[in-house]
Design brief:
The protein has 10 helices and 7 strands. Strands 4-3-2-1-5-6-7 form a 7-stranded mixed β-sheet, sandwiched between helices. It is globular. By secondary structure, it is an alpha/beta fold.
Amino acid sequence: MKLAVFDFDSTLMDGETIDFFAAPLGLEEKVAAITERAMAGELDFFESLTTRVALLKGLEKSKVDEICQTLPMMPGAKEVVHGLKERGYTVVCFSGGFRSATTPVCKALGIDADFSNILHDENGILTGRVGGDMMFSSSKGDMIVRLQNLLGITEEETLVVGDGANDLSMFAHAKTKVAFCAKPILREAATHCVDTKDLQEILKIID
């Protein structure tokens, strides 16, 4: 058995989920600017996450669910998951984003498990609060070590794929580290860089 862990936003999905959520509120540019700085490693991830989610206060949960039905997948997403599973990998998604998006998408792609955050709502309206598995810059690293211990998988048998600074902590625990259309801070930590928007390129790296 081997382990493959993918980031979600701008990796499995072509874009940033929270930017899509901000659009109906007219806050897409403001939220996107914070996202960009966080992914470049210029802001603390927890602070940037809670700041951005606070801006979503008042958005209907039904609107969130509607947006999550039409998120654009990265080219090659379905093919890379299928290809990895054929090669004996357990495929998992870690996201600093939200379960509203990751759970339905990962189910559709055939991914084995997803770990992400939950947008809190009251009576179907977002409160601007968030909680979950992936709140901190260290969260992905903590979780990958737990999964490796649980599954009996070594760093040598682990592949990670991401694009931003909050993927650094999981890159520290994998032999094969793929920076996918990534920010410079992550490219520096990678063993491989893919600069075309096609996840099938990852299959060439492991074959």
